[in-house]
Specification:
Layout (H helix, E strand, L loop, with lengths): L9 H6 L30 E2 L2 E2 L1 E5 L2 E3 L4 E6 L5 E5 L5 E7 L11 E6 L5 E9 L2 E13 L12 E4 L7 E6 L6 E8 L9 E12 L4 E10 L17 E14 L2 E7 L5 E9 L3
Parallel strand pairs: 4-10, 7-9
Antiparallel strand pairs: 1-2, 3-5, 5-8, 6-7, 9-10, 11-12, 11-18, 12-13, 13-14, 14-15, 15-16, 16-17, 17-18
């Protein structure tokens, strides 16, 4: 019987245990000439008390590498990209007023550039020039990185035996998809085991490392309470953070997990499971 695999995600789970509703826009400015309109004040400032955050994954990569721009604190609505200002990429959220319950909602948009240099990436809202959150995207010269090793197989950390990762590596396209089995909080809303998918994985550092997104699919059903598990469609799928996998050789790697705010929450030393 094969072992199960897991990496405990305490820091990330704690950071994402917040719930709330999308905050509305600020009150319209008074017509009183003594209280002028504050044109630079953002109408949206936080989600459930947490600041809005915008991330680029991977943040630094060669020209032509697809990136994912993720906004935490948003609902998964439509984004409009504006490159009208030189050196700045404005990501404008077009909210529709709906917001799923549970952990901090997220939205994302894809972006690829061949322009070498550092690009300022800012989050804004329609008809509001204020910058709510910002980051940078670094594009280096040269072609996209290719992998040094094939990742396909089961990986685990001996220090946390009982859970782990399955990587699926397409040798033709060099794309990688992962499923990460681990444990969560022992109390609601997510008791017991949890699983994450590793998506948007891109090779960086000349093929010696991977960077991508950790997404979680969640669902609860009254029909599953007795067995505590059953196959069903997900109620929601959300971005939970970023991961970086650095390969030492074909059978050894190091994975680091970051929460939505960019904080490193843990590191695991992985070994490929060899049958």
């Amino acid at each position: 019987m094969h072992r199960h695999f897991s990496y405990f995600l305490q820091g990330l789970s704690a950071a994402l245990a917040m719930t709330g509703v999308l905050l509305g826009t600020s009150v319209a400015a008074s017509n009183d000439p003594q209280t002028p309109h504050e044109a630079t004040k953002p109408g949206f400032t936080s989600y459930s008390g947490a600041p809005w955050v915008i991330n680029v994954v991977p943040r630094s990569a060669p020209a032509g590498t697809p990136r994912t721009i993720v906004v935490a604190g948003s609902c998964p609505n439509r984004f409009v990209l504006d490159e009208s200002v030189a050196g700045t990429l404005a990501v404008r959220l077009q909210p529709d007023g709906t917001c799923p319950p549970g952990p901090i909602p997220t939205g994302s948009v894809s972006y690829t550039t061949n322009a070498v240099g550092t690009l300022r990436v800012v989050l804004q809202f329609p008809s509001d020039p204020a910058v709510v959150a910002e980051t940078t995207m670094v594009t280096t010269a040269g072609s996209r990185s290719r992998s040094n090793f094939n990742m396909s197989g089961m990986w685990y950390d001996p220090a946390t035996d009982g859970s782990g990762i399955s990587f699926h590596h397409n040798s033709t396209t060099d794309s990688v998809f992962g499923t990460w089995f681990m444990y969560g909080l022992t109390t609601a809303p997510r008791p017991g085991s949890r699983w994450f998918s590793l998506q948007g994985m891109q090779w960086v550092d000349n093929g010696s490392a991977l960077e991508g997104l950790a997404l979680e699919a969640t669902a609860r059903s009254a029909q599953c309470e007795l067995a505590r598990s059953c196959p069903r469609g997900a109620d929601s799928i959300g971005y939970r953070g970023r991961v970086r996998v650095s390969l030492t050789d074909a059978n050894n790697a190091r994975i680091e997990a970051f929460d939505v705010f960019g904080t490193s929450v843990f590191v695991s030393n992985l070994k490929r499971l060899v049958f």
